[in-house]
Design brief:
Blueprint (H helix, E strand, L loop, with lengths): L2 H19 L2 H16 L7 H14 L12 H14 L6 H12 L2 H8 L7 H9 L4 E2 L9 E2 L1 H16 L13 H9 L5 H11 L5 H20 L11 H15 L3 H34 L1
Antiparallel strand pairs: 1-2
């Protein structure tokens, strides 16, 4: 067997193994295990994350700020700086300030969205997509415009959780980040066919009322895709599609968006860690062969 054939066979075996690992059945099992550990308080305590939660809640719920604090540039820069640190988004100071400034111009929109007491409709989602999720300019000819999409979802989620939906201690807004995206793509949940499979396999006996909501979310997602002439892939970088997808997953698993975010973040972190390990091992082998 030639060296090239050997490599091709190895690659095919690896793909086969990965296909077996990232099945819908495996994902459902992992979700149940993580949720069980969370409910049983078996998870490792992380002092830093606990401190982050306390600090974020303190400043977000502070009533000394103006009536509409989202229009207040000082508050926005302050809270964006704290979120940048707590969420490890690693934006530089210039980007944090530019984001805070851009968000403050949308203060009325932010307040209106956060005061919603139920799921968002198509109009709400389009507003968020066309305001908070657009590119931000640093107003520096040597700097490129940037899009703080992930940061915007975190901003909405934490304010919803601590201030506007604090009784349930869960957010009405899903968080988009690399960990969540990794899980969705690895398990194929951004593909309509796989999403349908997940819904069927994850359901036990969803209440009739929840079933109606699930059907509505699915219909809204299909309508959005049809309106924008999209294929059978869900575009995660478009907030209306991402929001609908996470809402569907939330209802199907009977988990709120905050718990679902935690589970997907945990799974995504594990996947990324494993991929980094495999990459390092592969690079080490190459170096060994060269030497």
């Amino acid at each position: 067997m030639t060296e090239n054939k050997s490599k091709n066979l190895k690659n095919e075996n690896t793909k086969e193994q990965q296909a077996k690992i990232y099945t819908i059945g495996t994902l459902i099992s992992k979700i149940k295990v993580i949720q069980k550990d969370k409910n049983g308080e078996k998870q490792k305590k992380n002092a830093r994350y606990d401190a982050d939660d306390i600090m974020l809640k303190k400043y977000i719920t502070n009533d000394d700020t103006p009536d509409n604090k989202f229009k207040n540039k000082e508050y926005m820069y302050h809270i964006c700086t704290i979120l940048n640190s707590c969420c490890s988004t690693r934006m530089g100071a210039h980007r944090v300030y530019a984001t805070a400034l851009a968000f403050s111009y949308q203060g009325d929109t932010i307040k209106e969205m956060l005061e919603k007491e139920s799921s968002l409709d198509d109009k709400d989602l389009e507003i968020i997509q066309n305001t908070l999720c657009q590119k931000i300019s640093l107003k520096d000819k040597d700097s490129k415009d940037f899009r703080s999409y992930s940061f915007a979802t975190k901003f909405l989620a934490f304010h919803s959780r601590y201030k506007y939906n604090s009784k349930n201690n869960c957010s009405l807004f899903p968080i988009y980040d690399s960990q969540v995206s990794t899980v969705i793509k690895k398990y194929g949940l951004n593909k309509i066919d796989t999403l349908e499979e997940f819904i069927i396999k994850s359901q036990n006996k969803i209440e009739q009322e929840k079933q109606k909501i699930l059907e509505k979310e699915k219909k809204d997602l299909d309508n959005y895709r049809t309106k924008h002439n999209l294929k059978r892939t869900i575009h995660l970088d478009e907030y209306p599609q991402f929001y609908r997808l996470m809402s569907i997953l939330s209802i199907a698993t009977e988990l709120n968006l905050t718990d679902l975010d935690h589970i997907f973040w945990t799974l995504g972190y594990e996947i990324q860690k494993e991929e980094q390990k495999e990459k390092s091992e592969s690079e080490n082998k190459k170096q060994t062969i060269k030497s």
